[in-house]
Amino acid sequence: MATNTLLVVFHGSMAFFDPGKDGDISVALTDMQDDHEYVAGSFRNELAIPRNASLDLSNVDDGSAHFDGTVHCIFSGAKPSGSPYAQLTFPRPAAIDYLFQVSISGGSLSGITPNASGNEIFSFITVFEYTYDTGALPVLGDPMDPLWQARGNNGETLHIYAENPMPMGKQHVLDSFAATGLLLGENVAMNAAVLTVPVPKQRPFPDLLGGRCEEFEPLPLRTTPPQEYDCGDIVALLKKFFLNLNQDTDQHAKREGRKRPTPTDLTSDDPSCLNMGGTP
Q1: Helix, strand, or coil here: 138?
Q2: Which domain holds residue 36?
């Protein structure tokens, strides 16, 4: 049987817990109520993740990758806690990629000990890489009635979103950051963070998605048809994650009828939601 590659792409507010050794990695989706959409599936064909769902990815090969605390914020001594929107479990991947990394000044953070540079690095997107045998296609959820099933294409993607579908302003970002920390038993906060682009030692985007960089776009920026991005321009891609505070930020307004922003609307320094990880 042929061996194919599956990429699981995580977007938004969520806490990864790596138990160490060869254990599975759990992913808790931060519960931001109706402010976030919680969906999973192939790009632009995602389905809603039910509240309180417990979903496992199966039919992929076990890997040996672990989180790297030097290129992504990882809390040592973390303990899964709190009440996530949903809980997902993933076998250990063959590789973990940290994309759209930003460096936040330690002076903008509380409850976090910055690294030697005085800053802490976070990622907007985390990617798990798997291989699998096409004789048994990967599924997310109950194998008899999965939320998602692979189609057997090499380089296929499974997207997991826990992200606001519309720009909601900086306070929302700060609130979701703190709520995500609580899922790891960490009391952390980000205050008026200044984000800068570090020199990322990450693999070129075409290696991951064969040039389909539109699959990295934040949920609030989805356009019809999908916008094509220049995979070689990392800085330009990163800017797509900065939301305009002048957009509608009423967290309780109806989503229906809102105009999705265009890239030219994105002018402020307000970031999209970040994710973080923890180990025992």
Answers
A1: coil
A2: 3-279
